[in-house]
Specification:
Residues 38-259 form the Xylose isomerase-like TIM barrel domain. InterPro entries: IolE/XylAMocC-like, Xyl_isomerase-like_sf, Xyl_isomerase-like_TIM-brl. The chain is α/β, with parallel strands linked by helices. Helices cover 45% and strands 14% of the residues. The chain has a single domain (19-278), classed as TIM Barrel (Alpha-Beta Barrel), CATH 3.20.20.
């Protein structure tokens, strides 16, 4: 289902320069490149690449992903490491040598982002049960973010229920400690942690640079946009008022939808929500 030229440009009006897209995470455990092929096949404005294996970080593989995206004019905005689960050990253990090695590992993601034309890396961070003071977390994040910035990539903290970043006050504290910190707002993760997306957005403030969007209702916390009760356009109006300028990326789990056509419909609904937010 290809989108119209009007839909291709509607997100760039009135200074609200957002792009609608899909994450390859929606297709896992399908191969990463096949997920990107689908996003390209429907003419998606944007995509996020969720890397799933070390071999996917080779230059030859990354360049093939770029070729797929460029073939349809799809812009890759962000990358997501498959090593998210290791981030507590890599960056937040206090073991300096492992932190430095972790930085070198993540430089491979930064390099891949450069090849893809992406400027964001999504970070999960430390475990929720960590007893370390937040200042130590923020210091480690700031150092990693500085390494990313030196390579032209913004490290953006995502809200995740199992992580230290599960709650709004974490982001309020992070903004105060690191005024330049940037954030990824994930709707389903906010719901799973017991907060509304609006609450999380207010806590993140002008730091929100990327959205992982999904729908939900009283029984299901992760659904394709347009199949639940969530008002995405209202959230977009809220983040627009906070200065948001970034990607609105559909991110679902494979068991939260059936046929791929549901992703096409969800993508169309994202475009419609963006258009509504501009009215």
């Amino acid at each position: 289902m290809l989108i119209s030229r009007r839909q291709k440009t509607l997100c760039l009006k009135e200074g609200f320069a957002v792009l609608a897209g899909l994450s390859t995470a929606c297709f896992y455990p399908e191969l990463t490149e096949r997920g990107l092929m689908f996003a390209a096949s429907i003419g998606a404005q944007a995509a996020e690449v969720f890397f799933n294996a070390p071999s996917e970080l080779t230059d030859s593989f990354v360049r093939e992903l770029r070729r797929i995206a460029d073939g349809s004019g799809t812009r890759i905005l962000s990358v997501h490491p498959f090593t998210s689960g290791l981030e507590p050990l890599l960056f937040f253990s206090g073991y300096r040598r492992r932190f430095c090695d972790g930085v070198e590992l993540y430089k491979r993601y930064f390099h891949a982002a450069n090849l893809l034309g992406a400027n964001l890396l999504v970070l999960h961070g430390d475990r929720r049960i960590s007893q370390k003071p937040r200042s130590a977390y923020f210091d480690a994040f700031g150092e990693l973010a500085g390494e990313g910035r030196a390579m032209g990539v913004t490290v953006a903290q995502e809200n995740v229920p199992r992580c230290a970043s599960y709650c709004p006050d974490f982001f309020r504290d992070m903004r105060q400690y690191l005024p330049d910190a940037r954030f990824v707002l994930d709707i389903k993760q906010a719901v799973r942690a017991g907060y509304t997306p609006g609450e999380m957005a207010r806590a993140m403030g002008s730091g929100v640079v990327h959205l992982h969007v999904s729908d939900h209702n009283a029984k299901n916390d992760c659904l394709p946009i347009g199949t639940g009760d969530f008002d995405l356009a209202a959230l977009l109006r809220q983040v627009k008022s906070q200065g948001f300028d970034g990607g609105v990326i559909l991110e679902l789990y494979r068991d939260s939808y059936g046929e791929y056509e549901e992703l096409s419909s969800a993508y169309q609904n994202i475009c419609a929500a963006i258009e509504s937010a501009l009215e």
